[in-house]
């Protein structure tokens, strides 16, 4: 982040605009909306700027710039000239006197930038690229202009009028936040908003939230790693949670989507090292929900595919805790797709089996004979450490030694690594690589298709 986004109260503060042309006019109109005391210094003024002067919205200073006569009381200076020498002098003056300065189209001479602005009354959205790509910022602004109806202003004004009422209704900050999120979710993108509808909904929500425990658990699958593979529902709930209990397989990029003030609890499970035991996780879910909080149980892949989601739901039901389940793209399907390996194919595989390679007491409880059929694919989760046991059991059960196998680490991400071999040679091959858990293992003739279907690097 090159520039920190900050909204400044310029009410009645002195602002100097140097330049009287069209560019200056656009900046002046923005600053006037903030109720600043604007002075415009230039030798010549455009007709529109003259009109603003005549309406006494701004003060006119008609003369050439003389840095030595400038006062140091300004809160902001805007240089809207095409004279680079003047702009540099203004920048040096502002820097010396600790005054914010914006030099149009010269980001290297700016201590602040305006960004592209979308305005709906008190709602202001400013988009900035730090001067690197202003056209892109304007394109984004156009999308926001389309997304936000003009009635958004009425929504914001109404919410301001009931803030005290909501505060009186709910002493707990968490309850107030839930009220506002439900309220805005109902109206944020609607075009036809009436005060009557707003009043009815606000009263209904207040009554509803007063009469029940609003705590809830969101059991959400975060997919195989790439944040763009999240479902819309998952993203919606991720950004609403008060508490986030997340696993080791959830990517850093997805965790960054969690609301910034949410309480984060790591509950990752590594081989022989469980940060929090499952019983304790269940207890945390129940206790936080009973406090009226919205608890995000964030899991890699899909919560019901080797994710122990069923155990957690059973506990929530036993304790009468409200919950939602959001499926995610399971690692087997997401990772195989990005590795260029279809799990089924008319010529190679008519069935697919998912198993866990996680050992219990040094053994794997697997019917190996069921995995040796020619025209099927086997996908193994969490199997890297048990790979020697897996391959030996498959060979002993009749699988041919040259059966293709692929190991995929950090699939769907920029760090994806794929190792392709056969079940008889893979263990010696991975010794020459730096592949590490977590890994998805794919066994079957479909692995051969990676040579032609490989698309993601």
TrEMBL record:
Which ranges carry the Sirohaem synthase dimerisation domain? 153-185
Associated pathway: Porphyrin-containing compound metabolism; siroheme biosynthesis; precorrin-2 from uroporphyrinogen III: step 1/1; Porphyrin-containing compound metabolism; siroheme biosynthesis; sirohydrochlorin from precorrin-2: step 1/1; Cofactor biosynthesis; adenosylcobalamin biosynthesis; precorrin-2 from uroporphyrinogen III: step 1/1
Might you name a Gene Ontology BP term for this protein?
A: methylation
Domain Siroheme synthase central positions: 120-145
What are the Tetrapyrrole methylase domain coordinates in residue numbering? 217-425
Q: Which reaction does it catalyse?
A: precorrin-2 + NAD(+) = sirohydrochlorin + NADH + 2 H(+)
> What are the entry keywords?
Cobalamin biosynthesis, Lyase, Methyltransferase, Multifunctional enzyme, NAD, Oxidoreductase, Porphyrin biosynthesis, S-adenosyl-L-methionine, Transferase
The EC designation for this entry is 1.3.1.76, 2.1.1.107, 4.99.1.4
Instruction: Give one Pfam family.
Output: Sirohm_synth_M
> Catalytic residues per the record?
247, 269
CDD domains registered for this protein in UniProt: SUMT
Q: Does the keyword Lyase apply?
A: yes
Where does the source fall among the domains of life? Answer: Bacteria
Question: Which GO terms label this protein's molecular function in UniProt?
Answer: NAD binding; precorrin-2 dehydrogenase activity; sirohydrochlorin ferrochelatase activity; uroporphyrin-III C-methyltransferase activity
The family this protein is said to belong to: Belongs to the precorrin methyltransferase family.
Protein name in the entry: Siroheme synthase
Q: Which species does the entry assign this protein to? A: beta proteobacterium KB13
């Amino acid at each position: 982040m090159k520039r920190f986004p900050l909204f400044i109260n310029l009410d009645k503060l002195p602002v100097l605009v140097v330049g009287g042309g069209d560019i200056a006019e656009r900046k002046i109109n923005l600053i006037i909306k903030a109720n600043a005391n604007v002075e415009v210094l230039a030798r010549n003024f455009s007709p529109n700027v003259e009109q603003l002067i005549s309406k006494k919205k701004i003060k006119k200073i008609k003369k050439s710039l003389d840095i030595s006569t400038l006062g140091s009381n300004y809160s902001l200076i805007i240089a809207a000239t095409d004279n680079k020498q003047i702009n540099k002098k203004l920048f040096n003056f502002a820097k010396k006197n600790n005054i914010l300065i914006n030099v149009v189209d010269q980001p290297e001479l700016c201590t602040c930038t305006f960004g592209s602005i979308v305005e709906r009354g008190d709602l202001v959205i400013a988009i900035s690229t730090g001067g690197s790509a202003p056209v892109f910022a304007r394109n984004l602004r156009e999308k926001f202009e389309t997304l936000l109806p003009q009635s958004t202003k009425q929504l914001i004004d109404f919410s301001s009028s009931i803030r005290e009422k909501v505060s009186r209704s709910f002493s707990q900050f968490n309850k107030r936040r839930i009220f506002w999120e439900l309220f805005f979710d109902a109206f944020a993108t609607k075009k036809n908003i009436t005060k009557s509808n707003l009043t009815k909904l606000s009263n209904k929500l207040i009554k509803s939230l007063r009469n029940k425990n609003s705590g809830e658990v969101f059991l959400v699958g975060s997919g195989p790693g790439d944040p763009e593979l999240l479902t819309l529902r998952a993203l919606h709930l991720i950004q609403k949670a008060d508490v986030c209990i997340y696993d080791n397989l959830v990517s850093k990029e997805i965790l960054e989507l969690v609301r910034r003030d949410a309480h984060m609890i790591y509950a990752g499970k590594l081989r022989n090292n469980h940060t929090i035991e499952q019983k304790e996780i269940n207890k945390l879910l129940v206790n936080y929900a009973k406090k009226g909080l919205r608890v995000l149980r964030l899991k890699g892949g899909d919560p019901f595919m080797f994710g122990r989601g069923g155990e957690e739901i059973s506990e929530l039901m036993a304790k009468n805790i409200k919950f939602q389940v959001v499926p995610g793209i399971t690692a087997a399907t997401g990772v195989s797709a990005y590795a260029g390996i279809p799990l089924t194919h008319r010529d190679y595989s008519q069935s697919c089996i998912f198993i866990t390679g996680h050992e219990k007491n040094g053994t794997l409880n697997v019917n190996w004979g069921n995995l040796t059929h020619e025209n099927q694919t086997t996908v193994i989760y969490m199997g890297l450490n048990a790979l020697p046991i897996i391959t030996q059991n498959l060979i002993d059960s009749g699988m041919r030694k040259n059966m293709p196998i692929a190991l995929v680490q950090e699939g769907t991400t920029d760090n994806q690594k794929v190792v392709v071999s056969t079940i008889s040679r893979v263990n010696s091959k991975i010794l020459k690589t730096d592949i590490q858990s977590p890994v998805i293992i794919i066994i079957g003739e479909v692995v051969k298709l990676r040579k032609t279907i490989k698309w993601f690097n």
